[in-house]
Design goal:
17% helix; five-stranded antiparallel β-sheet; 3 helices; 150 residues; extended
């Protein structure tokens, strides 16, 4: 009797471990590379909400992509070198830069994106808003990769 119960239990467990095979339809994908030069960043100059932004016209952002697609954006660091790496947005990094002969500023940068039909914005924010104080800081030239799937 004990052997029968073990056999019945094993059969029940094996029978309940089935799964359905789902066929995934081949998706469409488009990869776009672009660069924001240092002089292309526009400063918001809004009190208590300061950031830099660059806007791109992107006809690839159709209403169908907006409603049904998936958009991933990567910043490519050390672009064009053998040390190049991609970092998905949004991301934050800690930095320092020299503001005087022996004075350094420390901040955390955040790079993010937003998009709508026909356009994409890349948004750059520094945590201490130091550029508001000295008006000399501008984000560096950055290279990005946009991956659109639908």
């Amino acid at each position: 009797m004990k052997k029968f119960l073990i056999f019945a239990f094993a059969a029940l467990c094996l029978a309940s471990c089935s799964y359905d095979v789902v066929t995934v339809q081949e998706s469409n994908r488009k990869v776009l590379d672009f660069q924001i030069n240092q002089n292309e960043w526009k400063y918001s100059d809004q009190a208590n909400n300061n950031f830099f932004m660059a806007t791109f016209n992107m006809p690839e952002m159709t209403p169908d992509i907006y409603d049904n697609g998936t958009i991933l954006v990567y910043r490519e660091l050390d672009w064009g070198t053998s040390n190049a790496v991609q970092q998905i947005l949004p991301y934050s990094r800690h930095h320092e830069y020299q503001v005087g002969a022996s004075t350094w500023a420390f901040f955390t940068e955040t790079v993010d994106f937003e998009y709508g039909v026909g356009f994409m914005n890349i948004v750059y924010t520094a945590s201490d808003f130091d550029y508001e104080l000295n008006n000399t800081f501008v984000p560096e030239t950055m290279h990005f990769r946009v991956v659109i799937t639908w």
